[in-house]
Predict the structure.
Amino acid sequence: MSIFEWSFVAAVLTSATPILFAALAGALCAQAGVFNIALEGQMLWGAFAAVVGSYYTGNAWAGVLIAVLSTAIYSVILAVGAARWKADPIIIAIGTNLLSLGLTGFLLRVLFDTSGSFAPQGLAGIGTMPFLAGIPVIGDVFAGQSVLVPLAFVLIVAAGLWLRLTPGGLRLRGVGEHPDAAATLGIGVARYQTWVTILGGGLCGLAGAQLSLGNVTLFTENMTAGRGWIAVAAVILVANKAFWLPVACLGFGAAEALGFRLQGIGAPQQLTDAAPYAITLVVLVIMRIVVTRRRTNTLVPKETLA
């Protein structure tokens, strides 16, 4: 079986979609001046809430809605702490990440009397799009995907256009780049930061729902496994630009999908599991070198280097 085929492209999209949602949340927060590294914990909470909602209601979309709303509420901790009380967002984010890890494991035992993983029979997952199966190429890539996969790309385009072309988007960018100047113009800096952080929580809820009800149909403790941190890295790589997020996230998704394929031909699991994170580090180093060289070329006239 060839590694590179249309099913591989579909696997890349499946792996990249949760990271895309979380990275979009991080980019919007960064545009508002809040450096959000709580994406890992928020995505984990969203994955757990989606499974709980789907299990008790018997409806996957009810689980998605519960994941979005509950994760948005969960993000109020960061929103109020960083935007209203001016606390360090890094410290708050680390605390919420650790809280999510412990709280989901605790609630897994309390609600379902189990540990490790929860995959009951009949758990409703997000449906696929089989009506696309008859379309060449598109059917091969998207027919087996959940609706949240194309939604991620639609939201990224919409967010990019909103930031560039609308008064609200321009105000948000102003809040992040020059908060004091924005405040003198009557813009509520804390209000913008609070609501954008809460919106980011909702997007992380979508990321978690896709992970636990779209990619698979189960919840395992710490199932995000660093995907939130990869989303943070993607935001840094593209300098908070929403339009460029798919480039970074698809690269990481390709690394994960390739790892699964390599496992199928006998590659060590430890090597394939580490591939996405190794690629993240390599790309970060390369980008740092590129940025440093650009700054050097900008600041130092060429004549002085002759």
